[in-house]
Description:
CATH class: Mainly Beta
Radius of gyration: 18 Å
Shape: elongated
Amino acid sequence: xxxxxxxxxxxxxxxxxxxxxxxxxxxxxxxxxxxxxxxxxxxxxxxxxxxxxxxxxxxxxxxxxxxxxxxxxxxxxxxxxxxxxxxxxxxxxxxxxxxxxxxxxxxxxxxxxxxxxxxxxxxxxxxxxxxxxxxxxxxxxxxxxxxxxxxxxxxxxxxxxxxxxxxxxxxxxxxxxxxxxxxxxxxxxxxxxxxxxxxxxx
Length: 202
């Protein structure tokens, strides 16, 4: 949460992700970094780059790949405490937004590149003062887009993300977020994530 809506902010992110599937050899671990730009406490635009690796990989040629992403998030509505009024926090805020993201991962397997487009509707409640606690829920949909030299079928999947964040954690501008995401498609497992971000405040 920015200190003022009169300023624009740069943010830096360090992200770690773990994907656990029912088939152990397909478990994935990812590390990424990103930069975000927030306009006057509202819309956020971000770029991400990282690397994802298969765990327990026996192959010598294709155990991991780079990944890249771009994302925009736009606040549609920001209001009062809503559900946070249960604990008597009148300073709490509720935000409903929309976001769109693009992803690209080259050579996820021989001759195959992965491309995605996703749309989400994030809902969050920020409460308390000394350390700001933010809970969030993000339903969405993602499309696989054919961007390979080989013919690969496209697919649409629904997803649900949820978690919580701790803002202004000991250092002004330092936030830590914990989250999980479920993609409702076949044998896909639950994804967990940890994000550490620092925003340069004036």
